[in-house]
Amino acid sequence: xxxxxxxxxxxxxxxxxxxxxxxxxxxxxxxxxxxxxxxxxxxxxxxxxxxxxxxxxxxxxxxxxxxxxxxxxxxxxxxxxxxxxxxxxxxxxxxxxxxxxxxxxxxxxxxxxxxxxxxxxxxxxxxxxxxxxxxxxxxxxxxxxxxxxxxxxxxxxxxxxxxxxxxxxxxxxxxxxxxxxxxxxxxxxxxxxxxxxxxxxxxxxxxxxxxxxxxxxxxxxxxxxxxxxxxxxxxxxxxxxxxxxxxxxxxxxxxxxxxxxxxxxxxxxxxxxxxxxxxxxxxxxxxxxxxxxxxxxxxxxxxxxxxxxxxxxxxxxxx
Length: 319
Known about the structure:
The protein is α/β, with parallel strands linked by helices. The protein has one domain: 3-Layer(aba) Sandwich (UDP-N-acetylmuramoyl-L-alanine:D-glutamate ligase). Helix content is 35%, strand content 25%. The strands form two sheets. Strands 5-4-1-8-9-10-11-12-13 form a nine-stranded mixed sheet, with helices on both faces. Strand 9, helix 5 and strand 10 form a beta-alpha-beta unit. Helix 1 crosses helix 8, helix 6 crosses helix 7 and helix 8 runs antiparallel to helix 9. The longest helix has 15 residues. The relative contact order is 0.14.
């Protein structure tokens, strides 16, 4: 496994963090008062989740987080309890909460996600300023933008990263994704199929279409690497060397929360360690697969990621 303890600092930006509350119910039925059990609370939101996985795997991460109100104070307390390095950008609004309830009788997950507080210009510009004062090798922008944040916020954040000589990684959706890529110069963009279709403006019904669309983004200079995650259908990497498609690993699924964030954490940590994109891609797949073996919002264990990585055979470019 890459010597993650020697990596350069990797910073993450979370504009719309959440307190993730995960629990189980014997069964989920409408109109009934449902008693839950096995509840856990975790700091969440895209960048927080990515930083949390990096921390669990032994990496050096710094989470830049917008937070406010009593729930924001709880979020900071949860970050401190987990020993996660972080910086809070205070806002007047109240940090959101999200709920995941697992029906124990069926194994089905029900996820309820709030939109988050409405920001004003002073709020989101404060995050740009905070990012501009970070000494890091990589900057990961992950997650949704809360109401009141301009669609091109991540494009502006990418400009900050480039001025600071940080490699910029993007994982979001909708207009924020399209605007963030339009600037160009993104080191890595992680995308789902729906998100990739949104960027290229067309349906991608088969493997050939998906790979062509990913390469389109690379060749246009919008991103050096594109990682397309397809759930049980595996994942695709596009780079200057072409495309690589790897199948999903066969693991026992105990939850689906955080698989994409874990994939991104594993891949970026390996890239930051100087690994070839294809090798880093395999580490991402291993971390994502490890994430679904644990319930709720729990983070994957390093030993599991290492074991799963050993199951993936990837040839280096030119081999």
